[in-house]
Automatic annotation (TrEMBL), chain A:
Keywords from the UniProt entry: Amino-acid transport, ATP-binding, Cell membrane, Membrane, Nucleotide-binding, Transport
Membrane topology of the entry: Peripheral membrane protein
A single MF term (Gene Ontology): ABC-type amino acid transporter activity
Protein's UniProt name: Ectoine/hydroxyectoine ABC transporter ATP-binding protein EhuA
Organism: Pararhizobium mangrovi
Protein family (similarity comment): Belongs to the ABC transporter superfamily.
GO cellular component: plasma membrane
UniProt KW Lipid metabolism keyword: no
SUPFAM superfamilies noted in UniProt: P-loop containing nucleoside triphosphate hydrolases
Primary localization: membrane
Ranges of residues in domain ABC transporter: 6-251
TrEMBL record, chain B:
Keyword match Transmembrane: yes
Protein name, per record: Ectoine/hydroxyectoine ABC transporter permease subunit EhuC
A single BP term in Gene Ontology: amino acid transport
Keyword Transport on entry: yes
Membrane topology: Multi-pass membrane protein
Transmembrane regions: 20-41, 189-208
């Protein structure tokens, strides 16, 4: 197996007195598509937010592409990273947000060209061509001159995905990309993600509640519980024959909420 | 005396008032952005200077600031051997601009802080530098939010210009006082002046509305 492109080494993250990640060990190989599932508050989104440098860590080391993300090696020791180091590290990563987070004051096309022009220093022509190709990829080529508020949620999220792709990251982070969408709009977004998942070189880390989708596109599924990986494995195994009791309970509740409730009541009565 | 004969001197004064308003509002806007953004800086020196400026100018009377710049500063300058005598126009524009800028800075700060955290996170994920995030993402969204309050401040500023008549600057209020002293026709003079200030305020409000609409065009696109 090749060197992991992402590696969490005993990472601790606390919010006040709440420990969100509890000495988490976790790694992802280059090109791997990994889905993180788990109850809310289990630290799944925090993993992505730490990778995108939106959230700092309290202890441990996060490695991305062989280099520490939140640290720099100085004099043989790991020290807190400078903004410059993190700026360089962020080039490897892209993120798609639950609430899309598009820039409301820019047209769809400018949402896609602004960072390539300002950050990657692409020419306007190059950035525009790249944006138009990506908009075609997500099926929104005729919406380029609209503003985000003129689009549906599903369309906005597809713009969000295209915007992240415009930076050509090696690792894509999807933070519950369909959770804010009306049910009938989920499919169009999942289709775009599914197409991306076919790209062999792209490493994908996806937090989602869409179990069917996770089963289809993932190489591996990780079940998070209380800041740690409770169980992980290929989707066929984890979904069909979960070993841990917590995983079973969670999957039952997600797949068929009514039966889980019934059982809980039954066990409470018994 | 015919009331129309008051008009030429009053209009001359009104022109001075307009100039004072325009210059001091522009100065105030520049200061508002500089110190409003400065107050949000991570650099404690920039932050401290910004807070100091805002609190001092909001916490003291405009009239006293004006007198201080015009009467006290030259004497203070004399004591240390520098000529700090200011022409009345400069003292007037400075006092008005510094005062309105302090109020404006709080508006700028508030509007920038009201930009959702999500937007900064998106900026970070796309690897914008903090400076780029401020200028490309936060400010363009914050400016339309500032405009209604800026409109109020500009009208406030227009009315405050009347104070400069007290340092013998020939603005509208100053001319009105002169004519009244000469003719004792208080009612006519001050009614005219009232309407003239009101007219100027209307024009200024209209300008600010146009500006407000033009910076917020993206909000109403396609609606």
């Amino acid at each position: 197996m090749s060197e992991p492109i992402i590696k969490f080494d005993k990472v601790v993250k606390r919010f006040g007195s709440v420990t969100v990640l509890n000495e988490l060990d976790f790694s992802v190989s280059p090109g791997e598509k990994v889905t993180i599932i788990g109850p809310s508050g289990s630290g799944k989104s925090t993993v992505l937010r730490i990778l995108m440098t939106l959230e700092s860590i309290n202890d441990g080391v996060v490695w991305v592409d062989g280099e520490p993300l939140w640290h720099e090696e100085r004099g043989g020791k790991l020290q807190a990273a400078s903004e410059k180091h993190m700026h360089r590290m962020r080039e490897k990563l892209g993120m798609v947000f639950q609430q899309f987070n598009l820039f409301p004051h820019m047209t769809v096309r400018r949402n896609l060209t602004e960072a390539p022009i300002r950050v990657l220093k692409l020419s306007k022509k190059e950035a525009r061509e790249r944006a138009d190709r990506l908009l075609e990829m997500v099926g929104l080529q005729d919406q380029a001159d609209k503003y985000p508020h003129q689009l549906s949620g599903g369309q906005q999220q597809r713009v969000g995905i295209a915007r992240a792709c415009a930076m050509r990251p090696r690792i894509m982070l999807f933070d519950e990309p369909t959770s804010a969408l009306d049910p009938e709009l989920v499919g169009e977004v999942l289709n775009v993600i599914r197409n991306l998942a076919e790209e062999h070189d792209l490493t994908m880390l996806l937090v989602t509640h869409e179990m069917q989708f996770a089963r289809q596109i993932s190489d591996r599924v990780c079940f998070f519980d209380r800041g740690r990986i409770c169980e992980e494995g290929p989707p066929s195994e984890l979904f069909s024959e979960p070993k841990e009791a917590r995983t079973k309970e969670f999957l039952r509740a997600v797949v068929d909420p009514d039966s889980a409730k019934g059982e809980k009541q039954a066990s409470a009565e018994g | 005396m015919e009331w129309t004969s008051y008009l030429p001197p009053l209009l001359q004064g009104a022109w001075v008032t307009v100039q004072l308003t325009v210059y001091s509002t522009i100065l105030g806007a520049v200061l508002a952005f500089a110190f409003g953004i400065g107050k949000l800086s991570n650099n404690w020196l920039i932050k401290g200077v910004s807070i100091g400026y805002i609190e001092i100018f909001r916490g003291t009377s405009l009239l006293v600031q004006l007198f201080w710049l015009y009467f006290a500063l030259p004497i203070a300058g004399q004591a240390i051997g520098i000529d700090l005598r200011l022409p009345p126009v400069v003292a007037g524009v400075l006092a008005l601009g510094l005062n309105i800028g302090a109020y404006g800075a709080e508006v700028v700060r508030g509007a920038i802080q009201a930009v959702p955290k999500d937007q900064y996170e998106a900026g970070r994920a796309l690897n914008f530098t903090p400076r780029q995030a401020m200028w490309r993402i936060a400010l363009p969204q914050a400016v339309p939010e500032m405009m209604p309050t800026f409109g109020n401040l500009a009208v406030q500023n227009l009315k405050d210009t009347a104070l400069v008549s007290l340092i013998s600057l020939g603005d509208l209020a100053f001319r009105a006082e002169n004519i009244r002293n000469f003719t004792q026709d208080s009612t006519t003079v001050y009614t005219l002046v009232l309407f003239m200030y009101f007219g100027m305020a209307l024009v200024l409000t209209a300008f600010m509305k146009i500006a407000e609409r033009s910076v917020g065009r993206w909000k109403t696109a396609g609606r």
